[in-house]
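The following record pairs a protein chain with its ligand, 6-O-phosphono-beta-D-fructofuranose.
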Amino acid sequence: MKRIGMLTSGGDCQALNAAMRGVAKTLFNCLEEVEIYGFLDGYRGLIYGNFKMLNSRDFSGILTKGGTILGSSRTPFKTIQDPDENGIDRVEAMKHNYYKLKLDCMVILGGNGTHKTANLLREEGLNIITLPKTIDNDLYGTDMTFGFQSAVNIATEAIDCIHTTAASHGRVFIIEVMGHKVGWLTLNAGIAGGADIILIPEIPYDINKVVESIQRRNKAGSRFTILAVAEGAISKEDAALSKKEYKEKLKNNPYPSVSYEIAAAIQEKAGQEVRVTVPGHTQRGGSPCAYDRVFASRLGSEAAKLIMDDDYGYMVGIKNREIIKVPLAEVAGKLKMVAPDATIVQEAKMLGISFGD
Ligand code: F6P
């Protein structure tokens, strides 16, 4: 008999349901008796004891569904150890609900912040297994997170659509891609969509170099230029500022996001018409792509195996195409960024893509 808790925390992404189904199907198939408790809206459900018991039917028909059947919420790690507005100790409350239900393990699906809290719960003595979700692909310890490939497909389609209209009008177009503080999504969608310029946080850009690239294309007879810009892209000048100075600058910044700032600079320096497209949360929505369905199902199945072996305290990830388990203590609090000299960046540069550096 196993009693399992499950929750999905942080920004949602495609294949969360596929991953939970992978865990549940494996447990229902391989064990005589299983009880699965789904906590609603992320850690909030575990804190306030808001859960529902799930049976095998609840996991049926959800492989292809985006979002999460459990709901999600952001519960920032930096305040998780502070009491809530009613003075409730949230960490103690989570432990209390875990023990009250006599759980053998919590399966937690989430990204960076989620993993910090998951590791804290492990340190507090709970049995934890995590699964790496995020469209940002910035989780340390795994080559890939589920949701990422689906988001790459959506961002790529956005760039594809912009290509045709950009060509008709001979304009400069910026497509702003999600990814938080890292450039994986922009880099991959940018290459897949044939962007001419890719700007990512890990490679601060020089606006003059960006303008030069556009002008070079104009001279060579190209009627349009497409920029894939990460939402976290940053100029060389801004990257040189201290955190405090940068925050101060942002306070007085009239632009809704970095793409609009870049657009205004290009317009001023190159005198060219620029349009900005922000696909935003569409990148996290819709049905998971085939890769993510397979990947999340495999991760779920391997997580279930760890549970059956009573082998806890790990994130299940992938390295060199093999599914692996990584100690949670190694994962929590670390970011996986694009190395500015990574081979994929070098290859993109050899293809003629400018990074504005
Ligand atoms: O972490 C996933 C992500 O979509 C990031 O790419 C983005 O910066 C952030 O979440 C958006 O967060 P929210 O949905 O809270 O606006």
